[in-house]
Amino acid sequence: MNDRNAALIETFYDAFARRDPDAMERCYHPDVTFGDPVFQELEGRDRVMGMWRMLLGRSADLSVTVRDVTARDHEGTAHWTARYTFGRTGRKVVNEIDAQFRFEDGLIVRHHDDFDLRRWSKMAMGRPVGVVLGWTPMLRARIRSTAMQSLQEFMGTR
């Protein structure tokens, strides 16, 4: 266990839970990449932090908890839970997420989150729409496209 890298992960999620994107950003390497089932692949601290700032700004009731943090010299993992109301539908979401990290120069250079998109879509959009969105490749692509368009619009207004 690398205590310094484990503390870096804890610091990131503590800042996230406090809704402090500036403190989150200090945990990331300038060349950070981020991926998850929705945003798939974002490159660079500006784009990655743009996503986090957008998500924080859209969810007044976001609650973040982290557990099972592990870290070695070059990689780490954590499990985190996000609880919030999905803005478009007003539905409550409890998303269970497994995160993987790579470290470089004492910072997070790679952050990848994995969660069940089908499960998320059922919570966020309800049945039957969420079930269809979670299963159909075309509609999953629509979720991704909408998310990226929202991020581009958000970053264009900053």
Description:
With 158 residues, the protein is of the alpha+beta class. The protein has one domain: Nuclear Transport Factor 2, Chain: A, CATH 3.10.450.50. The protein contains six helices and six strands; from the N terminus they run ααββαββββααα. Strands 2-1-6-5-4-3 form a six-stranded mixed β-sheet. A hairpin with a 3-residue loop joins β3 and β4. α3 (45-58) packs across α6 and α4 runs antiparallel to α5. The protein is globular. It starts with a helix and ends with a helix. The relative contact order is 0.17. The model has no long low-confidence stretch (mean pLDDT 91).
Highlighted features:
six-stranded mixed β-sheet; NTF2-like_dom_sf; 44% helix; SnoaL-like; 6 strands; Nuclear transport factor 2 family protein
Q: Strand order across the biggest sheet?
A: 2-1-6-5-4-3
Task: Specify the helix fraction band.
Answer: 40-55%
**Tally of individual domains:** 1
SSE order, one letter for each helix or strand = HHEEHEEEEHHH
How would you sum up the major sheet? 6 strands, mixed
DSSP summary: helix tally: 6
Mean pLDDT: 91
Corresponding CATH architecture: Roll
What form results from the Cα inertia axes? globular
- Could you tell me the CATH topology label: Nuclear Transport Factor 2, Chain: A
Structural class designation: alpha+beta
The CA-CA distance between the termini, in Å, is 39 Å
Whole-number radius of gyration?
15 Å
